[in-house]
Each structure stands twice: as structure tokens, then as C-alpha cells.
Amino acid sequence: MTQLGEMVAVVVGKEELTCPFPHNDRESKLQNKMKNSSSSLKRKLNTESQNGAELHLPHMRKTTTDMDSSDPNDKIMKYNPHHIFPGNASWPETDLLNWIDKSAEKTKVKGDIGYDVNGYRNGIDLPSSNHLRGNWTGRGEQFQNDYAIASIEADGGKRQFHDSHSAYSDFAKEALDKIAAKIKMILMPDRGCGDDKCSAKSNEKYPPPIKILPRIESASGRLARKLHGDPTKWQIPVMTSKFSLIYKLKITQKEAVDKLSPDNFKY
User: Fold this and answer.
1) φ, ψ dihedrals at 253, nearest 5°
2) Cα angle vertex 79, ends 49, 216, to 5°?
């Protein structure tokens, strides 16, 4: 197995998947919430972003005119609620959506499993440039680097910075795809797991595999653990920003962008 494949397998969990379909005839009335909402995730996390926590960055370097700005906002950091499995970039692209959501374009199921993309189990607060919205893009590279590094350090040097993260979203999508593959393995070579009571056995569309929900949430927790802790153990492509990689490797923005190009990763 490739290193990337092993990383995905760790997130998904290596334990064998038991049949996720109900073994009774009861109709599920659960509903999913798949619309990505930072404000909703913020409320459910009830941590730094929900409480408006601010960190002051008095130790930012003063090496450029930009850094000597008298604007006090340049030395304040606020947190961003990060969706561990992104609702806009990962969920719409994964085959797993067709197995858990009756509204998916190519759905295979006739009901939902009760998954909430904005649930607290799918979130983590990360240092970010949120406080500088409208005054971040176009700032000098030195300022952006110094601000991001100071933000990570003010947070204790244990959580990644949050910004754009295409390679991360692709990795998350791949993990979700692997969960979908495990569901399909249960159904081979015949519909259902072989148990006479398995509800997947004789339906045109499958019943929602409601027992897969804990597996998704466990995977979310394992992926979240890769976003905090010792920075020397942060792994490419599980980076929520190029600035996280800059902090880890002490490289330039161009070098970080090149290393995190989605084209570098083949699953």
C-alpha cells in the first residue's frame, strides 16, 4: 500500500465493517443536513469561534513597512470553524453521498442516515485570517507569513492555520470514498449481507445504512487529530493551509503551494 493509501486507511479505520443496513422492516425517518454552514458549525462547536475568542499577536516580526502598520487589527487573530469533511468540496464529489443521502443525484438509497455536515463531530476551530477579511488578499508575503506563524504560535503551536486547502479536501473525499467501498463489499456478491433479516436484500433502492454513521464520525475524529498536535507530525497533503506547511518546513509560499498541488497526489 502506498503511503497515501496507508494514511487514508488510518483515517477510515482498519477494523472490519459489519453490515450497516437495518435488520428489520422499520422505515427510517432520519434526515441529513448537508448544506455547509460555517455559522451553524460555529454554534455547535461552542469553542473559540462561537465565543468570539481573540488572540493578540504582539510578537509579530517588524521587518517590513506593512508590519509596522499602526492598525491594531493587524495583530489580532480569530478562529475559523473548519469542516473536517468539507460539505462543499468533499461531500458533493464522493460516492458515499449516494449511499447515505436520498436526495443525491445518483442516490442508491430511499432514506437518509441522519448525518449533519455541520455537527460538532465534523468540526474543529483553527487559527485563521478571519479577523482580516477584506484586508488579507494582496498583503505582502512577509506579512501573511508572519501573521499566520504568529497565530499558530499564539495558539500554542499545536493547531494548523486555516485557509484554502484543495489537496486536503481531495484527501477527505478519498477517505469518504473508501467508506463507500466498504459498504459495497458488504453487498457482494449478492444484495445484503447474507442474513435473512437484512433489509438490503430485496429492495429496488437500498434502505439507508444508518449504522455507517458512527464509522463516518470516527473517521472525522481521526482526521481531526491530524490537524493538531506536534507540528513535526503534520503530514502532506493533510494541510488546511499552505501556511501550516510553511510553519512546519520554513519554506516560501511558492514552495508550499507547489508541494500542496492536488496534481501531486494519486490515490
Assistant:
1) -60, -40
2) 75
Peptide bond into 86 cis (omega under 30): no
Per-residue pLDDT of the chain (267 residues; tens, 9 = 90+): 579 999 999 999 988 888 998 888 788 889 999 999 999 999 999 888 888 888 988 767 554 445 556 677 888 999 999 999 999 999 999 999 999 999 999 999 999 999 999 999 999 999 999 999 999 998 889 989 999 999 999 999 999 999 999 999 999 999 999 999 999 988 876 667 778 788 777 667 889 999 999 999 999 999 999 999 999 999 999 999 999 999 999 999 999 999 999 999 999
State how far the Cα of 155 lies from the Cα of 127, in Å rounded to an integer: 7
Whole-number Å distance between alpha carbons of 113 and 209: 7
Distance of alpha carbon 114 from alpha carbon 43, whole angstroms:
19
